[in-house]
Structure of Bifunctional protein FolD:
Amino acid sequence: MTTATLIDGKRVAQDVQQQTAARVEKLKQAVGVTACLATVLVGEDPASAKYVAAKRRLCEKLGLASVFVKLDETTTTEQLVDKINELGRDANVHGILLQHPVPKQIDERAAFEAIPAQKDVDGVTFHSFGTMFYGLPGYESCTPGGIIRLLDAYDVDIRGKHAVVIGRSAILGKPMAGLLLNRDATVTVCHSRTVDLPELVKQADIVVAAVGKPAFVQGDWIKDGAVVIDAGFNPGPKGNIGDVDFEPASERAGLITPVPGGVGPMTLAVLVEQTSIAAARQAGVEI
Amino acid sequence: MTTATLIDGKRVAQDVQQQTAARVEKLKQAVGVTACLATVLVGEDPASAKYVAAKRRLCEKLGLASVFVKLDETTTTEQLVDKINELGRDANVHGILLQHPVPKQIDERAAFEAIPAQKDVDGVTFHSFGTMFYGLPGYESCTPGGIIRLLDAYDVDIRGKHAVVIGRSAILGKPMAGLLLNRDATVTVCHSRTVDLPELVKQADIVVAAVGKPAFVQGDWIKDGAVVIDAGFNPGPKGNIGDVDFEPASERAGLITPVPGGVGPMTLAVLVEQTSIAAARQAGVEI
């Protein structure tokens, strides 16, 4: 029996998309600028190609332009950096997304760092990481940024709450910790080396599971009334499932994200939102 | 009665200084390059002037060159950035330290970001913050970097331990969290908004107090045998004291830093160490 309130990520993502479409339209009206996202795909990974296609479709749906750059599997770091530099100089491009992962011969960090901070709408540069941790204006990693928007949409009071983040990846666990810290949560970051994870999760007012293991977080680890955010998306026997064992967790949680339909839809929504904001800022317009 | 073993920061700092002097000498012998730190002081704050003077004296003692740039209280952001850019281009300067704080009219972040990553031996740029959090080669914030060196010098096993960092400042609490996380600690960051701080500190295998309040951390918050690192340095009735109530804490801790003579000496030692490493890297020499 589910007693927790479900966090409807599809609905919140729709709201973010609508605001984005409105901002894009206003910017066109105001200064004739069409917000534009450049997507860069290196190699032939089918999942990556699918993700990039979804990003481009969403741009089209919301009135943004998009530029698609497809590079060979054998691309070198230098070639990729050159291409990103070119997009960085292109005044018609407002945001740059380099699809992760890139082929092994490429220094992905060097490629990310070639993205100018003002076009880093995917929040992957050290600069963006810094602004996320220091609470300064900038662009957020899209999934953690989306999680903050979910918490806000459901009026979760973050200040002073104990947030336990399970996972410490560069695009999820670590930036999530920074964003929660800057919203005045007490933040614990757990990972594969953590001893007695259940005991730590039991203390959490807010749990963010970003560990990439299906149904890993057990229901009896969840404190009564806690907010449970599941950023996992793992292949399961009947479709994808999250990192949290949903049914038992939802009997204890106050609020919980389903998988799918929770965190998932937010990532793309934040990407296009940040692209529209970047376009407005680069046009020098307050919208 | 003190039962904890005292961590002798003076001794560890001496070791780091000796290694630094040896590296500096080797670099001179190998390629005729003298490692050089540029210190930039803006305005008339007497404490800042004293800190900069101490840094320059240590450079001299260990065989490093130093360049001292003194700018007026009325310096603009643009003037300061220009000066830092000039030092960034100067091949004879290997490390740049901008003394914090700068006068109010200056955008300190913009000034920090003007320091090239390869000369950021004080670890203040977003780039350095990123490398600290991602565990990539780079330069560390000197005080947190010094604390890691203290833990290593006393063979503290960080992996899997629960570290509680009290404080979330840009140069101490936040980078400390990143460095501990990359050494596989489970990390909790607490701060002024944290509810039930004693309960969290009681769980810590490693406590880092960086809160700036004299004798704030109480002895009975310390778990038996914990490692207690006190980064505080507050004016007290009989000289400066730390953030930890030393006597009662030392009855429970396994290892503890005194104040003074614990963390304090490490900050300068790491600054010159990182300058010597930067000089070697910029000269393309493995030393």
In short: The mean pLDDT of chain A is 97. The domain at 30-136+266-282 of chain A is CATH 3.40.50.10860 (Rossmann fold). The longest strand of chain A covers residues 36-42.
